[in-house]
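Quick question, first post here. What does this chain look like in 3D?
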Amino acid sequence: MKGFVFQGPGQASWQDVQDPGIKEPTDAIVKVDAVTICGTDLHILKGDVPEVRPGTVLGHEAVGEIVEVGGDVRSVRPGDRVLISCITSCGRCRFCRDNSYGQCRGGGGWILGHLIDGTQAEYVRVPCADLSVHLLPGSLRGEDAVLLADIFPTAYEVGVLNGHVCPGDTVAIVGAGPIGLAAIATARMVSPERIIAVDLAPARLEAAHRLGADVIADFREAPDELVADLTDGLGADVVIEAVGVPESFELCTRMVRPGGHVANVGVHGKPVTLHLEDLWIKNLTITTGLVDTYSTPKLLRMAAAGWLPTGQLVTHTFPLNRMEEAYDVFSDAGETGALKVVLGGEHHTELAVPAA
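> Answer (accepted):
Ran it through. Tokens below.
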């Protein structure tokens, strides 16, 4: 089979790799139908995630069909159409018993495309399959469902829920990439008073407005002052960091009100200064987090019912064998307008960016 293989910082290619096989009785082998590229994959290619060894197939988000299962797998069988979660869960360790699957100590957590071969291939081995794949509703298309493997549960759990977004809140979201847009969509479910989206790219700000942001702001034009003006000088109740660079995190700490929450979702590749000389007196709660995906079943039901705008985030689709081109498009989002890039699924022709 073929897969997209990391060969070192700045180097990866779509190439022949060994077919996966059952290694443990809890494994499943999935034929990949649709897969997407994550911002974390770009961090890996930049060398920001040194745990990823050369020779690893990248990717941690996919939907597909079960083709083989180990002898201990009970919840799925060959022929089932499933979502592969970005997080693997053993279901037995202390953290899994607390629904903290991202911190699994039984061989799970974020391992696909990180510590073991991932989903950007024609077939993938999924450990701990009973808790790490989800049966798909028949009404949900693969290219829509694949967004529930990572970005929607990440935005909802690490952003909206960790940030304790409440009805009537002012919520500021810094970064209107895929995670930030998913945070807008899931924050709207809680009925905040207003959502303010901050980004550098006009196309992403337009997408944020379409998905429910009440106010959009250019990162370069003092958005912290805009937030202060809109809140009588208090600041936002919740600020969600969805970029992963020092400047965006520091902006978030300037935008939040005393007693408010900063929920960091972005993946940081460099140290960030925490200005405790200014922040210690503000009674802030700052949270970080790797998604646990405990909300995935709920989000799948909501997507099947039409409550999540998953399709609006997909701007480009390709067949699997155009993985390298898809990476080029996704990594140059400023020029291409790419939000989410999906490979495979029911449609294999490149899509235009949706009109504003």
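The mean pLDDT is 95.
The longest helix spans residues 151-161.
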